[in-house]
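Re: that backbone. Tokens:
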């Protein structure tokens, strides 16, 4: 099972890459329970703003605020994570800026804060950054196109 960075931290498996887990089926009748449990799983105790419409924020180094992903037709990004907690997304953004030296953006949509690296110019750059992340114990990012 592939996990987000936040889930790997929660399960204390960043270094080992594996962990024993228990999987529970969640059906619509238990969705309220799942939401309550997910709220407990925050990595930090920051604000929990839930925008009702798509809000995006562009990457800016050394800023405390999330930034929109600049969207240009045909742009390629690596999505490194998606969080319910804005502070967790911003912490990952800061780590990835330091690791990659590339712009790292946060998009907010329906209560999720998506951390994206890019735009990336070519497939080699996408591959190299993906490998760099894996070598530094980050989860494998998802390639996204706009």
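Recovered sequence:
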């Amino acid at each position: 099972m592939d996990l987000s960075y936040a889930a790997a931290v929660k399960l204390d498996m960043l270094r080992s890459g594996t962990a024993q887990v228990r999987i529970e089926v969640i059906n619509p009748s238990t969705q309220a329970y799942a939401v309550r449990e997910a709220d407990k799983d925050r990595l930090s105790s920051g604000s929990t703003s839930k925008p009702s419409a798509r809000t995006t924020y562009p990457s800016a180094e050394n800023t405390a605020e999330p930034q929109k992903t600049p969207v240009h037709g045909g742009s390629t990004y690596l999505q490194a994570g998606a969080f319910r907690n804005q502070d967790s997304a911003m912490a990952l953004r800061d780590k990835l800026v330091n690791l990659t030296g590339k712009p790292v953006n946060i998009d907010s949509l329906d209560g999720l804060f998506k951390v994206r690296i890019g735009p990336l110019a070519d497939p080699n750059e996408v591959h190299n950054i993906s490998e760099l992340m894996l070598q530094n114990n980050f989860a494998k990012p998802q390639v996204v196109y706009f």
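Strands lie at 55-56, 76-83, 104-109, 112-120, 142-145. The chain has one domain: 5-145.
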